[in-house]
TrEMBL record:
Pfam families named among the record's database cross-references: FA_desaturase (PF00487)
Domain of life the protein comes from: Bacteria
Record-annotated Fatty acid desaturase domain positions: 66-332
Family matches, as CDD domains: Delta6-FADS-like
Protein name: Fatty acid desaturase family protein
InterPro entries membership: FA_desaturase_dom, Fatty_acid_desaturase
Length: 354
């Protein structure tokens, strides 16, 4: 009887926990309006201005100050487009505005992987099955072992090297990952679906590469080589930054993983618990959070993936207060600590054992 009573009490706590978080969600949905729309349009205008300025400066980048300024502006523009715009728009965070130019169904981002393929692997698979071993492919991106519940293989000894190589080539890694070749080999994805996704990738990737490494360098004339180098540097900076933010939001020590048994009878409150315990925040100021796509608030993003990203800073203290109230761990820390902790986890699970 005691066991049954404890289970009933625990279920009741889960439901109340879920209701409190649902109230936050409902309040933000009701409050969305002109200020939010102005925010995203301001970010878009800023991003486009930085990109235009960077392109112009790189067109005359035989002069070293122009190269530095152009590369810096283009790097920030690509970070903003990838993190605060592309990622969040494709989550449907701004669909409520009814603007076809800022809508998840029409936005195509400045990234090698097509938006449609990314929305399937990220929005559907990852955000549904967050950190469930065997269901969430983002848990280690099929090449890393990040949980004791994942079987160890000799190839995992090299995962520190994989991570080192993946960071500067993150757009290529995500593009190949979104094709899901592992799912095809396991019989979880049809060859027809794979060919469709591969066709989409082969249609988009050459255009992306030609834009940065052929078209704009040719337009730069005498500055062609330095322009190409600036574009390559900007893409690499964007990749290093996005890799760092994403890994620090998912893999530091303190972030839990789950087995499929956790899904049995999962309530709304239980879903929130899994999202919160399967994520980590990164401390920082307003500029840091804009440049990180507000994914320094990864906990809030996983709890409310379709709420406007500019609202995460507002609701984060309330989410943390609710977690403290119910004794739910809330993992957060400065970037350097989360980065070091992520590398610790990568190294720890590279070797066999629990």
């Amino acid at each position: 009887m005691t066991v049954i009573a404890n289970e009933i009490a625990e279920a009741a706590l889960d439901e109340e926990f879920g209701r409190e978080l649902d109230r936050i969600r409902a309040e933000i949905i009701a409050a969305r309006g002109a200020d939010d729309a102005r925010y995203v349009r301001t970010v878009i205008a800023t991003q486009r201005g930085l990109e235009a300025g960077g392109r112009v400066a790189l067109a005359v980048s035989l002069f070293p100050p122009a190269w530095v300024a152009g590369t810096a502006m283009l790097s920030v523009a690509k970070i903003l487009e990838n993190m605060e715009l592309g990622h969040n728009i494709l989550h449907g965070q701004w669909d409520w505005m009814g603007d076809p130019a800022i809508h998840s169904a029409t936005w195509e981002w400045d990234f090698l992987t097509p938006a449609g393929a990314w929305k399937r692997t990220h929005n559907h698979l990852h955000h549904t099955w967050t950190n469930v071993v065997g269901r969430d492919r983002d848990l280690g991106y099929t090449i890393f072992r990040m949980s004791a519940d994942q079987p160890w293989r000799p190839r995992h000894l090299a995962q520190p090297l994989y991570n080192f190589l993946l960071a500067p080539l993150f757009d290529w890694g995500i593009a190949l990952y979104d094709l899901e070749p592992d799912a095809v080999a396991a019989g979880g994805k049809s060859w027809r679906a794979f060919r469709t996704d591969l066709t989409g990738f082969l249609a988009k990737a050459p255009r992306q590469l030609a834009k940065d490494y052929v078209l704009f360098p040719l337009l730069a004339g005498p500055s062609a080589l330095s322009c190409l180098l600036g574009n390559l540097t900007a893409n690499t900076v964007r990749n290093l930054w996005s890799h760092t933010i994403i890994f620090c939001g998912h893999f530091p020590e303190g972030v839990r993983t789950f087995t499929e048994e956790h899904l049995d009878g999962e309530t709304r409150g239980g879903w929130y618990l899994r999202q919160i315990q399967g994520s980590a925040n990164i401390d920082g100021g307003p500029l840091f959070h804009v440049l990180s796509g507000n994914l320094g608030h990864q906990i809030e993003h996983h709890a409310f993936p379709d709420l406007p990203s500019n609202r995460y800073a507002e609701i984060a203290p309330r989410v943390r207060e609710i977690c403290d109230k119910y004794g739910v761990p809330y993992t957060t820390g400065p970037l350097w600590r989360q980065y070091a902790s992520t590398w610790t986890r990568i190294l720890r699970f590279a070797v066999p054992g629990r």
